[in-house]
Amino acid sequence: MTRLQIEHEEICRNYRVHLKLPVFEISSGERQLGCWQAGTRSLRISEHLITSQPWGITLQVLKHEMAHQYCSEVLRSKSTVHGEDFKNACCRLGVLPEFRGFSLITDELLGQLDDHGKSGGAESKVLIKIEKLLALGESSNVHEAEAALQKASSLIEKYHLQQLTSADHSSYIVGVIEIGKKQIATYKRHICRILQDFFFVRVVLSRAYNPHVNTVQKTIELMGSRENVAIAEYCYFFLENRLAILWNDFSQRTKSSGRTQKNSYYLGVVLGFFQKLKDQNEQEKKKSSIEPQRNELLLVEDRRLDAFVQIHFPRMRKSSSGASRVDRDVYQKGMEAGRNLTMADGVADGGKLTRQLPR
Q1: Can you give the pTM of this predicted structure?
Q2: Helices (H), 16-141
Q3: Which of 69, 142, 239, 248 lies at a C-alpha separation of 20 to 30 Å from 119?
Q4: Per-residue pLDDT tens digits for 55-70
Q5: Phi and psi at residue 38, in whole multiples of 5°?
Q6: Would you place residue 102 in the very low, low, confident or very high pLDDT band (cuts 50, 70, 90)?
Q7: Is the pLDDT of residue 137 over 60?
Q8: Quick one: which of 228, 186, 220 has its CA closest to 359?
Q9: Strand 42-46, strand 34-37: pairing
């Protein structure tokens, strides 16, 4: 209950709206996940929703009901329940499009939203093709793995350009990677840099309440098209899986141990892989004949995506992390491993293409 009050106040502060704190009620119902009652000034949220869904989903339901509160208490709306006033209120409060058009948010609705992202359309086929290319490196043929990675990178960029020119390209989602800790390690921050620089997504280091442990924990939020977010999530989990395997092998061979050496090796691998992707990207640009078109389209895309990020994080601010201790020798060994890394390596070892419901 207290956390919902905090979130209500935070949403009002972030979006600069003035709403009085309602009477919060945690309901036992499993069908209706949220409800605003103007007569009693009560805002009801389902306990089932809180315990069964990521906290970001609870926040979207809360924002949806706050939009109803905004209509009744600020706009004094006389229009239909989900008329123009409600749409304007949703925009004002940053309610994601998926959560705006329903009079009753239910488990079935959340399931439909999830299924929509798993449709078997052309986008999913491209995604499967990219995943297969990244998985090609399961063979011991290093040159085959390198060729597959380059082909996958090229397909990702070409597909992204096709998205930008399509008539229905206007929808973005938010994918949330839950860290499960109160701090984000330095190497994870550099993975985020890779995702933003090479995978056509915006990355924001944020935080979310975890009701199961009653604490606020760090999250990594990816914003972009559904397909680009899915590919970026794949890359994140690939790197996390592969880092653990590479470190285990390196520590056994060199008898290295301890947090500083482990973090140094992880950081070296990530930065080595970053340099590899950067070099490949520059080579592809030299060969490309569509550079002017690419730059123009990406500029338009940047503006659209920046506007979406601004809606989701209206008061975002930059922050820097403190310096961490680095073992230079171990770091250099990690750099070498990162330069030899192919994304396909992670697939056979448990890497997976994942997606989560939008926050």
Answers
A1: 0.73
A2: 47-52, 55-73, 84-93, 107-116, 122-135
A3: 239
A4: 989 999 999 999 999 9
A5: -65, -35
A6: low
A7: no
A8: 220
A9: antiparallel
Residue with tokens 């905090």: 6
Residue 219 backbone dihedrals phi, psi, to 5 degrees: -135, 160
For the chain, what's the residue count? 359
Q: How many helices (H) does the chain have, and how many strands (E)? A: 13, 6
- Give me 16's structure tokens: 């600069």
pLDDT grade for 11, boundaries at 50, 70 and 90: very high
Q: Are 106 and 33 in contact (CB under 8 A)?
A: yes
Token pair in block for residue 177: 């990677």
Any idea which fold 2-116 has? Answer: Zincin-like (3.30.2010)
At CB < 8 A and 24+ separation, what contacts does 245-249 make? 245/349, 246/334, 246/337, 246/341
Structural contact between residues 263 and 185, judged by C-beta atoms closer than 8 angstroms: yes
The count of other CB atoms within 10 Å of the CB of residue 265 is: 29
Q: Where do the CATH 3.30.2010.10 domains begin and end in the chain?
A: 2-116
Residue type, 319: S
CB 236 within 8 A of CB 305: no
Question: Strand runs (DSSP E) across the chain, as ranges?
Answer: 23-27, 34-37, 42-46, 173-178, 202-210, 215-224
State the helix-helix crossing angle for 186-198 and 259-287, rounded to 10 degrees: 10
- φ/ψ region of 46 (left if φ > 0, alpha if ψ in -120 to 50, else beta) reads beta
Confidence of residue 123 (pLDDT cuts 50, 70, 90): low
The chain-wide mean pLDDT, for the chain, equals 77
